[in-house]
Structures are given as structure tokens and as C-alpha cells.
Amino acid sequence: MLLLIPLLPLVGFLLNASFGRRVSKPAAGAIACGAMIASFLVSLVSVFRLIALPADARAIAQQVFTWISSGDLAVAFTLRLDPLSAVMILVVTGIGSLIHIYSTAYMHEERDAEYARYFSYLNLFAAFMLVLVLGSNFLVLFVGWEGVGLCSYLLIGFWYEKKSASDAGKKAFIVNRIGDFGFILGVLLAFVHFGTLDFQEIARSSAALGPEAAFGTMSLITLLLFVGATGKSAQIPLYVWLPDAMEGPTPVSALIHAATMVTAGVYMIGRNAVLFSHAPQTLTIIAVVGVATALLAGTIGLVQNDIKRVLAYSTVSQLGYMFLAMGVGAYAAGIFHLYTHAFFKALLFLGSGAVIHALAGEQDLRRMGGLKKDLPITYWTFLIGALAISGVPLLSGFFSKDEILYRTYASGHTLLWIVGLLTSLLTAIYMFRIVFLAFHGHRAEPFADAQDRHARPPQSGSHEAAHAAHLHDAPPAMAIALVVLAVGSVAAGYVGLPQALGGSNRFEKFLEPSFTAADVRSTPDVPDDGAATEGLELGLMAVSTLVAVGGIGLAFFFFLANPRASDRVASQFPGLHRVLMHKYYVDEIYDAAIVQPIRIVSEDGLWKGLDVRVIDGAVNDVAGTVGGASALLRRLQTGSVRAYAASLFLGVVLILGYYLWR
Amino acid sequence: MPAGVSLRDFYYLLPELVLTGGALLVLIADVLLPRRSGHALAWITLLVLAATLASLGTFSGTHEVAHGLIAVDEFALFFKVVFLVSAAVTVLMSVRYLEIEGASPGEYYFLILCATLGMMILAGGIDLITIFIGLETMAVSFYILVGFIKPNQKSNEAAVKYFLLGAFSLGILLYGMSLLYGLSGTTNLRVMAPVFFGPETRHDPRLILAVMLVVAGVGFKIAAVPFHMWAPDVYEGAPTPVTAFLSVGSKAASFAMILRIFLEGLPAMVHDWQILFEALAIVTMTVGNLAALTQTNLKRMLAYSSIAHAGYILIGLVAGTPRGVSAMLIYLFIYTFMQLGAFTVIVLMRRRDVVGDELKDFSGLHFRHPYAAFAMLLFMLSLGGIPPTAGFMGKFWLFSAAIDAHYYWLAVIGVLNSAVSLYYYIRLVVFMYLKKDATGSEPSTTPALTVALAIAVVATIYIGIYPRVLFEIAEASARTLGVVGITAALP
Q1: Cys bridge to A396: A365, A423, A493, B113, which one at CB 3.0-4.6 A?
Q2: ipTM given for this complex
Q3: Chain A: residue nearest B296 by CA?
Q4: Residue B245 in domain
């Protein structure tokens, strides 16, 4: 049963990869969407069966086969459904299905083969993502972890004609290598330290050990794992790939780079909550990195002009919130935000996709404006998404973000809470900057002009002509996805209604078994749910509501009511503005400090130094004019073989030298 | 019949005898059959290999034959299977390649079989004399094979280089071996081992010199840095199927020799050679991967990649534990298939007018031949160690063996290196999948190549998903090496 969930998209991938080029677009789209929807239905059934079980026994495991067995050591390919993975598979298959449906319209101008290629990658991604969240040990998780990475690079570089797209894919790949380097070391160390890779058993062993007072092995393991998470989930210092990843098609940004893959790091920490709880040093680092990333990305998001880049920095910032939650031990709150964020961020990306689609590839906010009239569905749904992410009460983002801020404050991290609140203000400002610049006000210049410069390669000419007359709102397949996600963005939060508002936070109770070891209860201290804390929680809610509304107000003042004011502020702090525009020069710093030195060493040092490559050109040139044998002799006498023999001899001398020196 | 050698000895040498007889049969058939009968000769060669493989199964257990010259045990068996399978895949790859190059197939297949024979002797050799004979049988066959395409300058130059440097390194190795003989009074590794355990001999500088020279000599064979300079030139210049066989069979055989010499013959000196191999492993991995980064010729890139892989495999030797040794066997087995597979795809690209081993020849391959591109993707992922391919399992086991033996830094450097290596493997994937270029070469398949590719693909996926059987066999094989004795000797 469980195996079917990742298997169905895999079958979809195989079908489209093998026959996709030979079938029509609707058929290829139907295969891909059908596979996802079927997987979603199987997930729903599985989750219902899970809920039917008593609360403390909610887990369904399916061992597919024994993977490695060596002496007393065995690693099985086992899928395991528990409350945490239940949330994840519903997000992946549910939102995944909607984005697949949206893509059928968004990508319809691609050629048949490209269309099938796109959907086969998308299905393959979903299959790996489901393996990632269903795996019951690190090895299975790692299969998914690397698999989603591969699909991500392929999809970022999907429009390979664009150099920026293939560069972005390359960057994502390299940055993730650094993260995975830490991750695999963490896994190996855990394997040797605990003698197992099974999440349940690691939780049990670490719970038995008790929290580490000083920085010990468990802290090292968790820190290495967190390095992997910073790569995959775009946190400081490895967040730089995500904004560039926006070169991929917009539905890909929505699915992979907002709703699912980038949350894998958060999920991984949640999956190992017990282990991380026993490494308080690492938790502190996670909380600080998370909140710092949230703030940094939020400030950059304020001044970017590419609509998708603003959303990308917003994603980085929201992921920072999730890590903050993990770091203060509020695992359920972090996963809750992951879940609500999947709805509204997917919605925002798809909304921006509808805008880009309508404007034939235009992504620059400064060239948009007044779209509200022409794109009503897009406008209203986007507005709901923006309200949700800003933390306006009664929408999903409010509940989840507030839960994180409350838990941060309640656990005594006042400074982190203040920074979190500040980020919340920034979120409201940059989101409504998009709303006001794109949908309100007036168009800065005719769109026909923009099309010529910014049309995506696959866009056809007839489409452009249509735009000159008037703009199309989202076609049905796209509109359905937008509306469903908008409904979700409003309603999704009510499963986790806090007690202070008369709810019972069922989401957190549902997840709780996933964050505790079977026999040792070691959840972080949560304040008693007395009247005093309820008062505190309500008070904090009021503060964050004020912040959200204040942010929207500021955005209204600067970007709609008084557009010149924002320019004035920018010109008053030219240095700060320039730093933000250039994203704190982090890319430039990395390039100068890391990329260039490596390039120089490998190209100039090794290639020219070590790889002599004498066999190449020279022989061909000479052989053409002089007789073969003499050319050969000459080559041999010019020293290459002697040089090689000398290097052999040098090796012997080095070894000898070592012994003499010792 | 010489004294002390009985019929029983010949019985245990049956696989080697079958192979020798088969090799001669190929030579005779070449004369008797009409010209241009490459296919028939390939079939005969495959049958010989199959017969040899079948004869391996006629006895079991651990035996020493011919006065302790050769051991017949599961360790040797494991390697012999690797050699025979890789020889068979090489033959499948060669049929059309030889036709295109217009080379005479008879001698070619004969030499492939001779090289295989040398490898088999090497895997069983527990006496310095046997090891030397096996090594030379293999090496001389390869010297000729590398230069087999006579009109090709690159091929000739590669052969001469390989021969000169091979002879030079063999001199170093022989010098080391002669010192070992002089100090112990025996050429048999198992007799030699206890002699060196005395506190006097262990610190004898002459013994240390001998160990050193042997390390340098075998370092050349596995192309460990700084004894690797020949590899890129030879790999690039040799006919592609020979490159494949050289990088797989010769490397595996050399590792078998290393394990025999150092674990069976020199356990007393473990602290001396362990640190040498540790340094070699680190330098080899790092230089191999960094130099591969900028290559644009695929054969040359795979040459550096194969250097790097030798570095990874050495990690298992440094760990020195039974788990480390079994990880080496597992890795060599997996490496055989992914490397052969990658070379098969390169052979696929070879057409009458196109060499097809440049990176740009592969651009957009996915659009012209999706199956070849997918197979190559799989091999690249496996070489880079991405799950669920076999290469990941192999690396995982090697690195965890290193951590298990408390060689943390070695594991860290290994993981770092495999992270770096992914860059150049994935670059090929990018060329195949994300570039659309009409100038790329058009691959053309034959049934033989399809079979070769299918074997490699199935093995790479199967072992990645279900490595259990291989793990069990490798562990059992490693156990017959007397590794248990080694760990007991460690403090």
C-alpha cells in the first residue's frame, strides 16, 4: 500500500520518459496528472487508516526488502507512515497534483517532446520526494534526498537555451554538494555511533543517553546533518542557489523551490527531533541561523524587482522561520508552518506564473501595474496568499507564524523573538509591494514593448499578438489550481487553532508521537496552558497582528499612495540601498573567496601543471608532415616519458624521504 | 612430472588450463577460419570464457596447490569471476570496434585471454614468483593490446609509454621483492609472514626499504599518484575496449596482488605500509578528481576518474579490518560494471569517421538516443556515488569501514572528493540532457553492444537496490584471506 504512493509517480515518469515523445500533449499531461492524483488518493486512504489507529500506535510500516545485511547489522528498505510523514505526503501529493494540473496549461506552448520531458521530470521528482518523506532510515531518506536534487537541477536548467538557466542549475548543484558533504558525513557518523540508521532506533538510543551538556558526538552528528539541511533548504551560508533557481519554469519554483523539496531540511530535523533535542548546542545554532536567514532574506526581498526573486527570498526567509521553530524545540510549530507555507507560497508562485504567462514572460515589477482589472482571478487569489503570508488574522499563515513566535518568546529567546517580529514586518511590506506594484496603480509602459525584450524562447508569436489587444486571465487549468490553493491558504490553519483562541491545537497533538522516542518522553518544556499563558499568547498575537497590518500600511504608503516616497528613502540611504540591491554582495564574495581560487588551482595549476597532455595536438600536427616513426621518436625524446619516469622515481624518493625524516 | 607436483594440482588449476587451451584454440581458429570472421572468433572467445567460468565451480574450499605457489580460495574465486565477466564484456564491446579500425581480431582475442590468464594467476598467487609471472603475463599482453591499432599514432605512442614506464616500475617492484626474499629466505608469502614478526627484523631498514619499493611498484599498477602519469595518456591512446579492460581488469588484479602481498606476506609491517597507503589514498583521490575536473576528452576524464577510484579503494586497505577488505572487494566489483558500462557507451559513439570520445560528441545525446543517454546517466551517477545506484552502496561501505576503524579524516576526505567528483560526472549529464546540439555524434548499436550495455545497466541498478548477496559473498571471500590474523597483529 505505502509503496504505491511513490510508485505511481515513478510509473508516470517511466511512461512519459519512454513514450512521451510519441504521444500528444494532452495524453502526456493526463499520464502525469493521473499518476499524481492517484498517488494523492492512495495517500488519503493511507492517512485515514493511520488516523483510525489509537493515538500512541499511529505508525504503518512496510518493509520492501532487506537492503544491506552484514553480520549483526542490517539496513532495510522500509517505508514508514507516521503523523509527520502523513502531513508530508499529503502536502507533496496534494499540492503536487494541483501544480501538475496548472502546468498542463502553463507549459502548453512547449514542443511535444519537451512537454513530455517536463512532466517526466516532475513525476520523477514527486516519486523521490515521497521516498524521502516515507523512508524509515537515513539510507532511504538519502535516496530521495539525492533524487530530488537531481530532478531539481534538471528542471532549473529546463530552458537550456538560456545561459542563465544552465548556470543556475550548475550553481544549485555545486552549493548542494557542499551541503551533502556535511550530510553524508553526519549519516556515516551516526551509523558508526549508533550502529544503526533507523530513525526509531536512533531516537531510542539518543533518548537513553540524555542531553549532551558539552559539544559531543551527538552535537557533531546533528551539526553535520544541519549543514546538509542548510544546503537543501537554502539557509545561511548556502542559501545563494535558491534565488537563481527561479530560472526554472514557474510551476517548478512553486512545487520544488517553495512547497516541497526546500522543506526537506526542516522535515529531516523534525524526523530526528529526539536526536536534535539531545544536542542543545546544535539547536541553538539552528535557531540563530534560522532567524538570521529570515532577516537577511527579508531585507533583500524588499528591493528586488523581479517578481519571482522577491518570492524566492521570501521562501528563504520563511524557511528561516521554520528552522527557528526547530531550533527552539517547537517541532510541531515548524512543521505546521511548513504545511501552511506550502499552500500560500505555492499559490503566490502560481499567481506570479499567471502574471508572467499573461505578460508573455515579463517578470520585472517596475513594468507591471494595474493588472487587477484584467486578471481578476489572479489578483484575488494572489491577494489572499499575500494576506496569509503576512500573518493577517484568521488566515493560515497567522496561526502558524504566530505559533512559532509565541514558542520562541515562551522559551525565553526574547532577542530571537524580536528579530522574528521584525522579519514579519518585512514580510508584510515586500509582499504588499508586489501586490501594489503589479496589480494596482498604472502600467509603466506598454507591454508590447516588454515582450520583445523579455519573451521566453518557447513563446510563440501568435500569443504575443493576442496580448497587444488585451490580457488573458489564467486559463481554466491554472485558475482551478489558484482557487483551490487560495481556499487552502485561508482554511489550512484551522486544524492547528491554538487554545488561546478556543481551539485545541489538534495538529500539534497529532504530530506529537513523531517527535518523541517510544519509551522516553523528552519533548521540550512547554509552558502550562494556564490562563496566564493564554493571556500572554493573546498579547503576542495582538502584537504580531499590529506588525502585519503596519507592514501592509507601510507598503501602501510607499508603493501606492506615495510612490515617490520610496525613491526618496532609497536616495537618502544610497549605500544601504545598493548593498541590498546587490544582495549584500554575497555572490561576489563567494566568487572571489571560493570559486575563483578553486578554478585557478584546477585549471592553471592542475591542468597545465599535472596533466601534461603531450599526446594531444603536437602529435597530430607533426605526424601530418613528418613520417610517423620519426615523429614518435621525437615525441619520446622531448622528454615526456623521461618526465613520467622521473615522477615515478620522485615518488620513491618521497617515500624514502618520509622514512629518513621520521 | 616434477617431484611433489601431483595430478591433484592440475585439477585445481583446471580454470587456468581451460583458459590457456582456449587461448590457443583462438589462435588456431584464426588461421583455419576464412578471413573476416571476427564474429566467429568473438563467439569462440566468449565460449572459452564461459567454459572457464563453469570450471571455476568444480571445486570449493581453500587449497594451496603446487607447493604453495598458488592458493585456490574464495578470495581468488571472487576476483576470477570479476576478470572473466569483464573480459566477456570487453569482447562484446570489441567486435564492431575492431571492424571499424580494421584490426586483426585473432591476435586481439588471444591477447585478451592471455591478459585474463595473467590476472587469474595474480589473484591466486601467494608466492612472489607466481605473482611476478601473473603480473608479466598480464602486463605484456596489455602492452601489445594498447598499441594494437597500428596505423594510429596515439595508440602507438601510448603503447611505448606504457611499456617503458611499466618496465621501469617493474624493476622497482622486483628490487623490493628480491630484498624480501633475501631477508626472509623464502618467496612464499605465507612462510615469509611469521619470519618478519621478530622485533629485530621488524625495524630492519632493509626491510623497510623493501616495503617501500613494493609499495611504489604496485602503486604504478593501480595508477596511484604520484605513479599515475602513464594512465591518462595510455587510456586516451589505447583502443577504447582495451582501455575499459585495462581500467577494470588490470586494476582489480593489481588490488588482488596488493591484498595478497601486504595482508598475507607483510602483516608484521602493517604500521609501515598502512601510513604509506593512507598518504597515497589521500593524494590519489584528490589529484585524480581535481585533474578530471577540466578534461574535455571523455576517455581522459575516465582515466583520472579511475585514478581517483583507486584512491577510494585504498581506503579499505588502510582501514585494514575485515570490513575494510570486504568493502574493497565490493567496490571493485561494482566499479567493474559502472566503468565498463561507461566505456561501452563511448564505443557506441564510435563510427567510421567519428571517434566520439569528446565531451561535445555527447551533447544532446538524450534527444538522439535516449536509452544510451539514460545508461550513461546511470553510470555517471553510480561513479559519483548517488543512490540508488550501486556506486553509492560501494562508497557507503568503504567510508563507513574507514570511520569504523577510526580513520575519520580519511572518510572526510573521501566524502569531500566524491562531492567534487560529481561535478565532472554531472557535467556530462548536462551535456547529454540539457544541451541540444546537432553536431553531436550519432550512436549506433549492435546486438553485442546492447548486451554489454544491458549487463552493465542491470548490475548497476540491481546491486544498488539489492546489494545483499554481493555483500555476503564479498565478506566470505575476504575472510579466506587470513585478515583475521592481521587484526590480531594490530595493537
Answers
A1: A493
A2: 0.76
A3: A607
A4: yes
